[in-house]
Design brief:
Helix content: under 10%
Strand content: over 45%
Largest sheet: 14 strands, antiparallel
Protein name: Por secretion system C-terminal sorting domain-containing protein
Number of strands: 36
Keywords: Signal
Radius of gyration: 31 Å
InterPro entries: Secre_tail
Number of helices: 3
Shape: elongated
Number of domains: 3
Organism: Hymenobacter psychrotolerans DSM 18569
């Protein structure tokens, strides 16, 4: 029994020792997003550990892969994030290592890594590596500091002696500052500093409740113009979206919208035709995870100005349509990035890249003209610019107060309210009707108008046409069997209207 007690005490001590060691880990292996400033003015780089493994006595954690610049116009896949490929932890030595090339480079491959020993006594020295040159690393001090407004214990290491670079590690929040790309040997190394405490993506800059914060009854209106602009654009479009419902649970947010769009074609030289089309009213439903920040729903339906891949971290990429070798890439967080007139600064940006095998080394480039898909996302309203659409009108409830941006004039005929639809509907009389029924429009037809009488199977059993300026028509019903019919009236470029007719 005495041996059993000793064994239990030893296990408890070892478990406590391992848990304590994990408190000082530079990056959390649970998928939390770490954010750093310092790459350039007002730019925030985000990254995370997204996979793990074991190598000998080390636990190995891999950073998410990113795109890096190949040229001023092209990108290339890279396993190296801002602090290398991986983080390793040796339990026995209670030591963390950030490795640029994974620690497996050959004798002619330059590598670099930073060794961090947060449990060593102050003044202890050891060796890190920069391009195959040993760099003295010293634990120079312990203390406390405010990390995003919260006090925490920190340790400070100096890499390089005597005027090296300082690396700061927080007990609970990980790496606080270190040189970008682990360039500890370069006097021009860019120092990255923690921008906020680590958190799940859905609770950080990619929080869906922050990016799209709408209430039932709120409206968003988007104007569409050709991405290939000319002196005579072929078309102009408008899309109006209204929130029907919003549901927030512990792990998700769910929106239901009604939306309708209109397209006006100019018949300019080289354009397909002249006229206006109005889509039917449709319902859109989408949801997002409050942990990962990722949206799901009918997002791909002609890219309906809904949040697409807004959870991508800085330079993180994600394959898109199979067989096209296209990648969606996230850009860094920029709180002051120019957005839209009705959305404020665009905190996030995503961009489509396309494979370019002809470049000698496989690279990815942004699309040009019709393939140039980009998205800007602002807090509260979501996408303020997406491909050909720009947010130009919003009506939102903020803290119980309705606030309007832009004008609704261009969207006035879209999503008519029930009273307006009733007022605009044609009339039929008599109803029921025996031999004929008279159809009357609320105003003379402004365009060629089609009339159809549909049976209970949806088949058109009678067709007529109203000319421009005509407001009445007589429907001959003598040859139709008795029953219930639907009379449908549709003016060119407008949604159809229907009434029941008993014969």
């Amino acid at each position: 029994m005495k041996k059993l007690y000793l064994l239990l005490i030893l296990c408890a001590c070892l478990c406590g020792l391992q848990a304590t060691a994990q408190n000082w880990r530079p990056f959390r292996p649970n998928g939390d997003v770490h954010a750093f400033r310092g790459a350039s003015a007002d730019t925030i780089l985000t990254l995370r550990l997204d996979s793990a493994g074991v190598s000998g006595a080390d636990s190995v954690y891999y950073f998410n892969r990113i795109m890096r610049r190949a040229t001023s116009f092209s990108w290339q896949k890279s396993p190296n994030n801002q602090f290398g490929q991986q983080m390793r932890y040796n339990v026995a030595q209670r030591t963390y290592v950030l490795l640029w090339n994974g620690g497996t480079s050959g004798p002619f491959v330059l590598d670099r890594w930073i060794v961090l020993k947060p449990f060593a006594p102050v003044g202890t020295t050891w060796t890190s590596l920069d391009i195959d040159i040993g760099m003295t690393t010293t634990l120079v001090s312990r203390g406390t500091a405010l990390i995003d407004g919260v006090p925490d214990s920190i340790v400070t290491f100096r890499v390089g002696n005597p005027s090296g670079l300082n690396v700061v590690l927080s007990k609970n929040y990980g790496l606080v500052s270190a040189p970008r790309n682990l360039l500890v040997y370069s006097p021009r190394a860019s120092m990255l500093t923690l921008a906020r405490r680590p958190a799940p993506a859905g609770l950080s800059y990619y929080n869906p409740l922050m990016l799209l914060d709408l209430q039932p009854g709120d409206e968003l209106g988007y104007e569409q113009e050709p991405i290939m602009m000319s002196s005579f654009p072929c078309y102009q479009g408008w899309l109006l979206r209204k929130v029907l419902a919003r549901q927030v649970t512990n792990d998700s947010i769910i929106y239901t919208f009604r939306q309708q769009s209109k397209m006006a074609y100019s018949n300019a030289p080289g354009c397909p035709g002249l006229g206006t089309t109005v889509s039917p009213v449709t319902t859109v439903r989408l949801a997002a995870s409050r942990r990962t920040g990722r949206w799901a729903g009918n997002l791909q339906a002609a890219y309906q100005v809904l949040p697409i891949n807004t959870d991508l971290l800085a330079y993180e990429y994600r394959p898109q349509q199979p067989g096209t070798n296209s990648m969606m890439m996230g850009h860094p967080v920029v709180p002051t990035r120019a957005g839209g007139s009705c959305g404020g600064p665009a905190l996030l940006q995503q961009e489509m890249l396309y494979g370019n095998p002809a470049s000698g080394q496989y690279t990815y480039v942004p699309g040009i003209d019709a393939a140039g898909w980009k998205q800007l996302v602002a807090e509260g309203v979501g996408p303020v610019a997406q491909y050909e659409h720009t947010l130009t009108y919003s009506r939102r409830t903020i803290n119980g107060v309705v606030q309007t941006c832009g004008v609704r004039t261009d969207f006035a005929t879209l999503l008519p309210v029930k009273a307006a639809r009733a007022a605009a509907t044609f009339q039929l009389y008599p109803n029921p009707a025996a031999e004929t029924a008279t159809l009357t429009l609320p105003a003379p037809a402004r365009a060629s108008t089609a009339i159809r009488v549909l049976d209970n199977l949806g088949r058109a059993v009678l067709r007529q046409q109203l000319a421009i300026g005509q407001s009445t028509a007589t429907l001959a019903l003598q040859r139709l069997p008795g029953g219930l019919y639907i009379v449908e009236v549709q003016a060119a470029g407008e949604a159809p209207q229907q009434l029941r007719l008993q014969h």
